[in-house]
Amino acid sequence: MSGSAHWTKEIRKADKRSPKEGATKRLDRLRGVLRGVDPVVANRAWREVGDSLQRITDRYSR
After folding, report:
1. How far apart are alpha carbons 3 and 15 in whole angstroms?
2. Which residue would you say has higher pLDDT here, 60 or 9?
3. pLDDT tens for residues 2-50?
4. How far apart are CA 47 and CA 22, in angstroms?
5. Rounded Cα distance, 26 and 3, in Å
6. 53's torsion region: left (phi>0), alpha (psi -120 to 50) or beta?
7. Theoretical Cys-Cys bridge with 14: which of 21, 34, 39, 44, CB 3.0 to 4.6 Å?
8. Count: domains in the chain
9. 3-state percent breakdown (helix, strand, coil) of the chain, nearest 5
10. Which range marks the domain in which residue 38 is found?
């Protein structure tokens, strides 16, 4: 099974269990991908992810 097929299957199974578990699996995959890129790019990506998660949190905590 290729890497992307493995992650697709794992994310699908986690989504069935709960949205939080699915999100955690997606972040695990992102962490693995960003491990192999330039640190400046990885830091920018994590900052963007953090900003997006904060907007989602703000929207649903009202």
Report:
1. 18
2. 9
3. 677 888 899 999 999 998 899 899 989 999 889 999 999 999 999 999 9
4. 20
5. 13
6. alpha
7. 21
8. 1
9. 85, 0, 15
10. 3-60
